[in-house]
Amino acid sequence: MDTIDHRIISCLMANARSSYADIGNVVGLSAPAVKRRVDKLLDTGVLRGFTAVVDPEQLGWGTEAFVEVHCRGNVSPSDIQNRLEPMAEVMAAYTVSGAADAIVHLRAASIHHLETALERLRAVEIIDRTVSTVVLSRLLDRPPAP
User: Fold this and answer.
1) What are the pLDDT digits (tens) for 8-41?
2) Among 91, 94, 118, 144, which residue's beta carbon has the most beta carbons within 10 A?
3) What is the Cα–Cα distance from 19 to 16, expressed in whole angstroms?
4) Three-class secondary structure of residue 24 per DSSP
5) In the structure, what pLDDT confidence band is assigned to residue 54 with cuts at 50, 70 and 90?
6) Short-list 65, 75, 78, 89, CA closest to 125
7) Are 64 and 108 in contact, with CB atoms under 8 Å apart?
8) CA–CA separation, 96 and 103 (whole Å)
9) What integer pLDDT is reported at residue 51 of this predicted model?
C-alpha cells in the first residue's frame, strides 16, 4: 500500500458511493486505475466490502450495553462465538485479556428488551456469570484512520 491507496481508502470512508472518476480526480488517477487499485485492496482484504452505515437508534435499537462474559472452565473462542451468534442482540463480541473471557456488545429496543437478552445470555450453559455496563451516551464513534 502506498499513499495513493491510503487516499483512495480515505475517499471511500468519506463516501463509499463515490465514483471511480470522482476518486480519481482527488488522487490524480484515471477511473480505471482507481478501479484496479480498489479491486486489489478488496483482493488483499484491506477493504472488506461496502455497506450502508445505519443508525441503530433510528431502527429502534437505541439501548446498548457492554457485557463481560465469564465462562465455566476452559472454553474456546470458537465455542463462545457459536453460542453468541444466534442472538440478534449481539452486535459484536471480543476475546479479551483480564478476568473476563469475552466482552459482548448488546443492542436492544428498550431496557426491558435488554434485560431479556441478558437473561438469555446468562442461560447459555458455558457462561458462569456476566457483568453488565449500560451505555448512557456515545461520546466518540469513529472508523480507523487510513
Assistant:
1) 999 999 899 999 999 999 999 999 999 999 999 9
2) 118
3) 8
4) helix
5) confident
6) 75
7) yes
8) 7
9) 84
C-alpha cell at 88: 440478534
Grid look-up 462465538 returns 81
Judge contact between 71 and 128, C-beta under 8 A. yes
Mean pLDDT on 73-91 = 96
Looking up cell 480507523 gives 144
Q: Find the helix or strand (DSSP H, E) in which 69 lies.
A: strand 63-71
Nearest by Cα to 33 from 7, 72, 64, 54:
7
pLDDT in tens, 91-143: 999 999 999 999 999 999 999 999 999 999 999 999 999 999 999 999 998 77
What does the alpha-carbon distance between residue 88 and residue 107 come to, in Å, rounded to a whole number? 9
What global pTM score does this model have? 0.80
Cβ contacts of 76 within 8 Å, gap of 6 or more: none
Strand order in the sheet with 90-95: 90-95, 102-108, 63-71, 127-134
